[in-house]
Amino acid sequence: MLEQRCHQRIRFSVPQKISIGFGGQIGEGVIENLSLSGLMLRTPMPLEISHNIGCEFSVFESPVIDVPAAVVSRVCDLYGVRFQQGPISQILIDDAINAALNSGKASILTVHELGGRKTMRITGGLCGILRSDFMHALTRMGVDEIDLEGVTAVEQAGLALCLVATSRHGVAIGAQSPCFAEAWAQALSIPGMPGLREGGV
What we know:
This protein has 5 helices and 11 strands. It is α+β, with helices and mostly antiparallel strands.
């Protein structure tokens, strides 16, 4: 899971809805993750690989994004699609992603290796939606440090993940954004930190 994608996957704190046009029909779904080049979506609509679809969605309060796409993968009701976008839709998607990250409503988790050390970097919201990727990086890849300088919002579930990393896996907390540093200091000041252990990690 070392980050090799040219476009990073964005996860949302609240699932975002998407309208899909395919074969003359309109269906609904939810976005699992989003990047500048495409997205993963869940829908009961029977889409077909290598066929084109229409996608219309909004990321929180962003303008509506209407972009054609090609279906490139399927696992049950989960589909991967690649955008066939023009310059306007690319700008709209980029703006929507940046606004969601800056508000903490979206998150990026990547793992980078430098000098034999692996660093997990989190940008945007430090929240429970990252749990699967976070624990995969922690237990399957081995992480030496967590870089939280790009964190813009913090949830208790996110603090619980960091507690597991430091207390059970010996991971160091590296660079910190002001909002994370404040939340982490408050969490560590709680005797026994029972609230974090109730996070269900």
